Amino acid sequence: MAQREAGLFRLLGTSAVYQAFQDALGAEAFRRRLAAWIDAAPGQRVLDIGCGPAAILAHLPEGIEYHGFDDSADYIAAARARWGERGHFWQARVEEATLADLGAFDRVIAIGVLHHLDDGPAATLVALAARALAPGGMLLTYDPCWAADQGALARALVARDRGQNVRDAHGYAQLARHSFAEVEPALVRGHLRVPYTACVLRCRAEASSHREVSPPRVPSSTSPR
Ligand SMILES: C[S@@+](CC[C@H](N)C(=O)[O-])C[C@H]1O[C@@H](n2cnc3c(N)ncnc32)[C@H](O)[C@@H]1O
Question: Which of 2, 20, 45, 107 has most Cβ atoms within 10 angstroms of its Cβ?
């Protein structure tokens, strides 16, 4: 995983510091919005890749079957302490073997994960997500993003992220082009207390279980909505 680990960045690996930092940025309000995009219904199965302390769970409906994976022991301990029986929390990296016996999911989410990964591992993760989805399911990712028209402060903040693989919206969409026929990137701004630019990627699995992966339909425009 390509990320900065020196000084203050190391502290962010501690669950309490990470959550306090996110709260200060106003991430909690934005998670509510993200949850609306995730659009999970009671009875559905949700896989959260790189779940961290699983803060998104506060905004997902009761009655979903939630599986959160993270290789950080501290984050998983914090998730278990906060959520107990509301989810299944696995201290593991998501890999082919990790998901083998878990069955199909209606939603796969990876919030703040892809920008920590080089292109190869990031595309592999997206491919794993595609295989884990039930027909008609959706992968949603969220990551900091470059944009041609972003302000200097937003650009400076994005540049200081722990993750070393921030992309533009097209770059994130490209990661999914071999795994999904339908890939929809959207720029997000004004969602935190500081100027920031992020990309939400929504990738849909075909409704039929016999998926033929055709060339991706990646919008050429990356303008905000
Ligand atoms: C920036 S944190 C995001 C945490 C959480 N999703 C949130 O929104 O607060 C990224 C997390 O992804 C985890 N991660 C990266 N690649 C992973 C993989 N293949 N499997 C499981 N966790 C992974 C890291 O351990 C890290 O905790």
Answer: 107
